[in-house]
Protein 1
Amino acid sequence: KYEAVIFDLDGVICHTDKYHFAAWKCLADKLGVYFDEQINNRLRGVSRMESLEIVLENFSGKLTEQQKLQYSNQKNEIYCDLLKNMDSSDLSIEVKQTLDQLRRRGYLLAIGSSSKNAGFILKQIGLENYFDAISDGNNITKSKPDPEVFLMAAKFVNKAAEMCLVVEDAKAGIEAARKGGMDCAAIGDAVNCNMADYNLSKFSDILGICE
Ligand code: G16
Ligand code: MG
């Protein structure tokens, strides 16, 4: 049924949540803003600037656009420093074997991530040059739930939306896939929103869908 699989990166291929949390927490503490894991969960799949707006919901002061940019840059510097801790051990054997198997079955494999750091993360976990295409925060103007990132990924692998299956861990990503006319499989927290075509209990379940 499908010819290409488009994977979200953070929360699907690997887990960068704890680094995002640590970096946002650092910024929030500096601003004297309350921040916890629950607020961090709302940032999944959302762009950096939109994430900052969510972090600032509990901030009473007013910031100029320039200050916001400065703060989001500060968060990103802390985050990128933490990403240096990642290595090939952050790519699970299950994920790697599943990807290899999909490739053997003839599927094109792409990344569809909101992150501007996708290339660096892929390099850290040893998947640099692995995917047939990478669509990420650097080639889009609107982030999830807008379908742009997935539509670009489909375009990069030269497949119509109906030929693509999206794998996502965030509600914003499931919405994006649906708006783009693609079927989607939810994994992790996204299973709870009950909006996907398939709910995966583990990554290798994709092999049951893409036979
Ligand atoms: C990821 C994360 C989001 C993050 C976004 C932008 O999206 O899930 O929490 O805000 O990237 O990241 P950056 O600040 O590195 O550009 P995805 O789509 O890979 O799950
Ligand atoms: Mg994600």
Protein 2
Amino acid sequence: MKLDISHMRYMTADDFKVLQAVEQGSKNHEIVPTTLIHQLSGMRSMSGTNRSISDLAKLKLISKVRNAKYDGYRLTYNGIDYLAFHSMLNRNTVYSIGGSIGVGKESDIYKVSDKNGVEKVMKIHRLGRTSFHTVRNNRDYLKKNSKNGVNWMVLSRLAANKEYQFITMLYAKGFKVPEPFDNSRHVIIMELIRGFPMRRLRKHKNLPELYNNLMKFIVKLGCSGLIHCDFNEFNIMIKDESEIDPNDPTDVGFVVIDFPQSISIQHKDAEYYFKRDVDCIRRFFKKKLKYEPKDDPSMLDTDGFGDGYRYAYPDFHRDIERTDNLDELVQASGYSKKHPGDRYLEDAMEDMRNTEEEQEDDQENDEEDGEDVTEDDEDDNDEYYYSESEEEDSEEEYDSQEEENERIIE
Ligand code: ADP
Ligand code: MG
């Protein structure tokens, strides 16, 4: 879904009040009646509310729905995009939107800039675009509500909040994740990592060290209480050489992204997901980088987190010893039987974790079936792109959108 905020400059303060009222009303109403919109908006005259409603509907930020009992309105994805962006503009965490960096299965990623021209990344969660194919068929509550889209919006918001909490906590604890800047509704703003997804890596100056540091990341995350659950070559950004700080011994040259589906080490399937994360990296190193790790006692260090990781790969029971309780602090899925978490989000995240897995399996089968996958074919199929030419395109788009945005704010 394309982010289109081009009409923002035409919107009045009243329009935003009314749009917010529709959002607020949606919490309890599938279709928000006009009278309630008026009440919640705090607008003085009904005719003013009606005018805004009609303008918002024209811009497709809300849509009119007739049901048996009454007519009313529903917030659209466009509408919630506008609200999120508007809040972040007001907080000065964003100033202008640039080009698209990637379209994921569950998100759209854009470059944005703040007032000082510092480039950042905006991740817009869009759950329900491709996933839920199993949930949709199997679960009654989604079957009942899947037509109206409300659930996807709520879930996208919950997923963004979760991811923001995860990276905020991890960043504060010194994990190599993007610095978080803001979160509004289904959107998060974070540091732009200048580099490329490990998927594109074919050569590296020290493969054993990179492998070792990735395994240490998984173990350290586990000892802090968390399992990433989608730890693979798409979600590890390899930093450009020029971005690596030679004076920082903790700069391992990569940054881990994409956390909404992470779980607690107390989750009932923790061991399974832990092993799957480890295996994803092992498989990638073996197939694409032709590197197979071996146990290396010379890598031993006593606390497990020093300079090396002595085993070829981690084992959940042997290596995970709790040193922190980040899972409890962020209420990660499965952290306690007494707190099963939000049921919708839980189901959605479970589906997300397993959707990734199915796709990996497909890919695996393709290759094992002897299909000759060339580098170019692969790139065509790439989930996310970052090619030179596309980057140039988006730069152009970026400039014109930046101008437009300046006008919005003036
Ligand atoms: P999804 O949940 O859809 O997989 P991700 O968070 O993995 O979303 O982001 C999708 C892609 O966008 C990544 O593979 C990466 O190429 C790019 N990306 C995401 N976050 C950043 C970031 N902070 N810096 C640079 N690129 C990023
Ligand atoms: Mg990803």
Protein 3
Amino acid sequence: GSVFAHLVQAPEDPILGVTVAYNKDPSPIKLNLGVGAYRTEEGKPLVLNVVRKAEQQLINDKSRIKEYLPIAGLVEFNKLSAKLILGADSPAIRENRITTVECLSGTGSLRVGGEFLAKHYHQKTIYITQPTWGNHPKIFTLAGLTVKTYRYYDPSTRGLNFQGLMEDLGAAPPGAIVLLHACAHNPTGVDPTIQQWEQIRQLMRSKGLMPFFDSAYQGFASGSLDTDAKPIRMFVADGGECLVAQSYAKNMGLYGERVGALSIVCKSADVAGKVESQLKLVIRPMYSSPPIHGASIVAVILRDRNLFNEWTLELKAMADRIISMRKQLFEALRSRGTPGDWSHIIKQIGMFTFTGLNPAQVSFMTKEYHIYMTSDGRISMAGLSSKTVPHLADAIHAVVT
Ligand code: PLP
């Protein structure tokens, strides 16, 4: 018999498992709103034009080689990524007190940052939002941190529970790490206002709480890279320290290239240098060094003014299509006279709508309408199109009446 015969079958990942179930469904009207990946009006994955151009440029360059990157990744990519998230005029960049390492997309950046903190930061507790992206608790637990939650979402308003958030962060032990979704909160689509961010910043700084930003959707929420980075820049402007995990999966459509960055903003260049040396000790035994291709694509686009501008237009078009899907779904429910207040569909931000549908309703919609989503009622607006909105609206209408 096999030495592994005692293993039990593990459950599918709660998010990726939705796609597995979808793929098995033979129905021609099936609709996958589970996974957070952009789709065109035709329901197809999108490779940005600007990415195709950058790849062509890389192919044409016969001097390019496939040597290992250094442990911290592509140097130019790291510099440009810091500039993209913090802004070209950031004091942290000017004063050279930031270290940035290329990591395996957003997930890898969170994991490396988590392990670094578990090794070198005095507080081992990280507070994450309730609810949050399903991978967060697992990433940080395996990184060696203790995971606790803070209140975030208010089901009764389908908006932010700001008071609960402030109470919970106010009661956190001094120095605790706080994971903050930089924009387009996953799964709720609910973000603090700029005024609320300022109050969160003041509270966190007064208690010495350590901000760890997860920026998986820069540009995807508002359509503007700068607007979506604003909360992070507020925390950097006050001179304090923070961590930022960046992903290029959504905003450049580089999902499978696994390209992202971890930045740690420090108080001095000297400390930043030491932090980088220790980050390399975390990375080397984990995967040795990151891949070269995705980071090269990003660097080509970010370094060239024309390509950069073209990218911002394509990014805005994706964000606008998602916003238009919100309006169309809201209108479709209104025209059906579907009971309930559905205004959260147009108020929420980014890729997802947290519909408020419960697991039983979700399972009814999957069974009767072949519509797939996570059991918490989260739907990916990027998976919708003008053609499929009526089908989704019919299903929601049927399940709530
Ligand atoms: N953080 C959040 C909140 C996300 O929603 C995602 C992706 O869905 C990620 C991080 C990381 O994604 P990736 O590792 O593909 O960059």
